[in-house]
Specification:
single chain, 139 residues, mainly alpha, 2 domains, 6 helices, 76% helix
């Protein structure tokens, strides 16, 4: 509000800030890709990677730093948990379900978090932390 009053063009400077941050994010992403894969290849970035990144953001919590860590950790640990569970029940689970169970669970969790808790796991963490802080005396 104060910048608009003295005549500074907010649209121009917001656009410049967005362009500079997009440039830095692009350079950082390309360097990470180069270090991780050895070369930046277009076949490495398919639709599944986009869905996983979107799932990390939604499940972890949109707009929070803690949510990005929760989302990334959840997306890394959930396939391990699913595979270990499927190894236990290998005889009873059909093969077509075994092939697609991770995508089914990811899709279900995205829908669940969008409906039930739109602020993701970060909000759940803050709620649990606040309840535990007042635990013996809930008033």
């Amino acid at each position: 509000m104060a910048a608009e009053i003295i005549g500074v063009s907010l649209f121009r400077y917001k656009l410049i800030a967005f362009a500079v941050s997009s440039f830095y994010a692009g350079v950082a992403g390309s360097l990470v890709t180069l270090c991780y894969y050895g070369a930046a290849n277009i076949e490495e970035f398919n639709l599944t990677v986009s869905f996983h990144l979107l799932g990390m953001i939604i499940i972890g919590g949109m707009g929070t730093i803690l949510g990005s860590f929760f989302g990334a950790g959840f997306m890394v640990l959930l396939p391990i948990f699913i595979n270990q569970t499927l190894l236990t029940f290998m005889e009873r689970v059909p093969s077509d379900l075994r092939a697609n169970i991770e995508l089914i669970v990811f899709g279900g969790l995205i829908v669940f978090f969008l409906i039930v808790e739109p602020y993701g796991m970060a909000r759940l963490w803050h709620t649990i932390k606040d309840k535990m802080r007042l635990w013996p005396f809930p008033y």
